[in-house]
Write a structure and sequence with these properties.
The protein has about 240 residues and is α/β, with parallel strands linked by helices. It is about 30% helix and about 20% strand. A hairpin with a 7-residue loop joins strand 8 and strand 9.
């Protein structure tokens, strides 16, 4: 088995780290991650060789570790779940280290859906939090909303390049420009979920115009309606 693990450590609160991920981190020798992610697991890092990375430095750090890793156990923690909004990084880790073990975590989208009481099985989940073009994701968002689905969406912070910055305000203007009545679309915007800085904004999409939100935001477009089992005829 591989000695390289990509693990999800939850949305931010240490309380959302799963037991299995905790055990993997305890057994590791080297931990490599972003500042916010390492902060989430800081109490588990005692005695570990820890590397804090950024988008600019990660490639160099991964390459250096690959050359000297040997039989040591390497853990790369990801905020939330490894299998959501992280595919570009995970693909690169596979290219560098070969076979890696992926261990899921609790995602902010799950927490946001629960707080908004919007069922995942009646929703479309979309992430704009990628470095490549998001034109397909924009079309997917429009189609989902037109089809009456709730949408759970991770926006894209990119303050250094306004053309790529696609946060709640930009999304509100985009939908209005494309013919949506944003005065009727109900929206929840969650920031810093599960932490002591958590906030929630509930209103209509039009109200988001000009408003600024944290990089750690999740949007929930609420279009689902209650449809309990009592509405269905007995199958007996």
């Amino acid at each position: 088995m591989s000695n390289v693990y990509a693990v999800g450590v939850g949305p931010g609160s240490p309380n959302f780290i799963t037991k299995i991920v905790e055990e993997i981190i305890h057994s590791s020798d080297i931990v490599v991650g972003y500042k916010y992610t390492l902060k989430t697991i800081e109490k588990l890092l005692l005695g570990k060789e820890v590397f804090e990375i950024t988008m600019q430095t990660q490639e160099d750090v991964y390459q250096k570790i690959q050359k000297k890793l040997g039989k040591k156990i390497l853990v790369i923690p990801f905020t939330g779940d490894v299998n959501f909004s992280e595919s570009e990084v995970v693909d690169r880790l596979i290219e560098i280290f070969g076979d890696i073990q992926i261990v899921p975590g609790i995602s902010a989208i799950q927490v946001a859906a629960s707080k908004a009481k919007v069922p995942l099985d009646k929703s479309k989940i979309i992430t704009m939090h990628i470095s490549t073009t998001i034109e397909c994701e924009k079309i997917e968002m429009q189609k989902a909303l037109l089809d009456g689905f709730s949408v759970i969406l991770v926006p894209r912070p990119w303050p250094k390049d306004p053309t790529k910055h696609f946060m709640p305000s930009e999304i509100a203007f985009y939908l209005k420009k494309n013919g949506f009545d944003t005065t009727k679309l109900k929206i929840h915007v969650f920031e810093n979920l599960t932490t002591d800085k958590e906030t929630v904004y509930v209103g209509r999409v039009k109200d988001l115009e000009g408003k600024q939100f944290s990089d750690l935001s999740v949007m929930v477009f609420e279009q689902s309606k209650l449809n309990s089992y009592i509405n269905f005829s007995s199958l007996g």
